[in-house]
């Protein structure tokens, strides 16, 4: 009979200093609560989620924890995951979520418009661009990112989404300073998975206390605020976050263009960086012990 509790895996010295696995259950329940609410409202039942989790347990054990191929036996995976060996033989790992092409294209074009000196003013705001012609123009902006899609098709799509408008002179004006996919769209689901994955990965990495420096994973939180104060803090937080993201986008674009694949031999440009910002407001629950405000 397989054990029903957590199965220990070989631990590093830093792992041994971490809290008992049982202490994770309470914060895990809080973490999963909004996700479970989303799943129920979207009609995803527990058996469906259970099957998905079973596959993920197998995939993570096989590829993330058992890094040596010779250790990837059914017995070892069964011991780590608590999944019976008969089930392992039937189990197939879920396919990774593919990245929609429109996500990459739209965000790359918008990032270049917001980050390139030729397409922004001295305050960093996006300039209106002529529809065609030499740079800077909307046509040259699109072709600097891709030649697989016609600039006119991108313009028509963006006009339909309300991301851009045409001024009296026929120039293309950017209305949105961040790409906001339509609710429930494939693009929005992609960002939902990517951003939450990276946030949880950063926090989990910090809990595991590896040898490297901790990931940035901080927040400012205040409880028991009045409606006016909360609304003011939310508005200012949105503006501050937007300023930071625009500034770092300009820096990232300049660094990428300067590097342009000229990294030193043996140091290929394979790293990705995801810096996210979130802001959440809700009616507060019962009074808590931490006091009216904190940062952590």
Write the layout of secondary structure elements.
Elements: H1 13-16, H2 25-41, H3 46-65, H4 74-81, H5 85-90, H6 101-115, H7 138-145, H8 151-161, E1 164-166, E2 172-174, H9 186-208, E3 220-222, H10 227-259, E4 293-295
Antiparallel strand pairs: 1-2, 3-4
Q: Keywords for this structure?
A:
296 residues, mainly alpha, two-stranded antiparallel sheet, 4 strands, 49% helix, disordered N terminus
| Whole-number mean pLDDT | 82
Main β-sheet, spatial strand arrangement: 1-2
User: What fraction of the residues are assigned to beta strands by DSSP?
Assistant: under 5%
Rg result: 24 Å
The low-confidence runs, each spanning 5 or more residues with pLDDT under 50, are 1-18, 287-291
Overall body shape: globular
| Count of beta strands | 4
Oligomer: single chain
Tally of DSSP helical segments: 10
- Helical fraction: 40-55%
Query: H/E order of the elements?
Result: HHHHHHHHEEHEHE
The largest pleated sheet is described as: 2 strands, antiparallel
N-to-C span: 43 Å
Structural class of the helices, strands and pairings?
Answer: mainly alpha
Short note summarizing the structure:
The protein is mostly helical and 296 residues long. It has helices at 13-16, 25-41, 46-65, 74-81, 85-90, 101-115, 138-145, 151-161, 186-208, 227-259, and strands spanning 164-166, 172-174, 220-222, 293-295. It is built from 10 helices and 4 strands, in the order ααααααααββαβαβ.
Walk me through this protein's architecture.
The structure is a single chain. The protein has 296 residues and is mainly alpha-helical. 49% of the residues lie in helices and 4% in strands. It has ten helices and four strands, in the order ααααααααββαβαβ. Strand 1 and strand 2 form a beta hairpin. Helix 3 packs across helix 4, helix 6 packs across helix 7 and helix 7 packs across helix 8. The radius of gyration is 24 Å and the shape is globular. The two termini are 43 Å apart. The N terminus is likely disordered.
